[in-house]
Amino acid sequence: MEKFKSGFVTIIGRTNVGKSTIINLLVGEKVAAIANKVQTTRTAIKGIVNRENSQIIFTDTPGIHKPKHKLNETMIETSFLSLPDSDIVLFIIEATSDDIGKGDRIILDKIKESKRKTILIINKIDLVKREKLLNLIDVYSKEYDFESVIPISAYQEKYRDIILDEIEKNLKPGPAYYDIEEYTDQTIRQLAEETIREKALKLLQDEVPHGIYIEVEKMNLRKNKQGEEIYDIEAIIYCLRNSHKGIIIGKNGEMLKRIGRAARIDMEQNFGLKINLKTWVKVKPDWIDNDSIINKFKLK
Fold it and tell me: Does one domain contain both 242 and 163?
């Protein structure tokens, strides 16, 4: 009988290359916020895949970008901190690249330094011609001895097993670290905060999203008159400026209602029970450089 395998896999790449979409594809559940904006992922989120002969624990790290404040610095530090503890690294790049750009070069150097087994994932192959893709594979293959190179489109389900099979092949025998029913080590509270933030990122204008921070203040599980379980969730959306507060709330409170509605629907699907969500918006000008808040984003 085949020995059971397990291991930790770090997903790393520049901002906006599709890391969160890939982790959600692989885990089969929504554990990472997805939005077409840079810096969507702030913390190292773990997703767990249980297969017949293996357990794979994924860490989706914040995208690598040029730091502008303490939050950014912490995010980048978190990305690289998880490398030495990985059994395998999934390095995500975009098929649209012509060469190894500055951000990808920094990541590649860190991978070389860590000497980790690495699988190169080339995402967004639907956007380029075959010749360009082959050239990119050639450029990267000369730089590092990757276990394999897998060109994909993260929105297509068929790539899930291709990637998981390749990871499993490279894992060593080991125990299941988590219960097989689990798919993330995030708490319900964290998942609620992530969901609200994702909806805000999708619905708001560019200048606001990354100046927001969500804090769930109260969570209460109760039963209604029909005996159905309901989560009462109260959350605050913190922003940096008064002008941002106005945008988040929107005319007659419409934008805040849209964010809340979208988050509630998503949470009800993910948590499998009814959600009563209340959201408020408060201005906190300095949170982006506030140590007590920033520490929440550090790798535990």
Answer: no
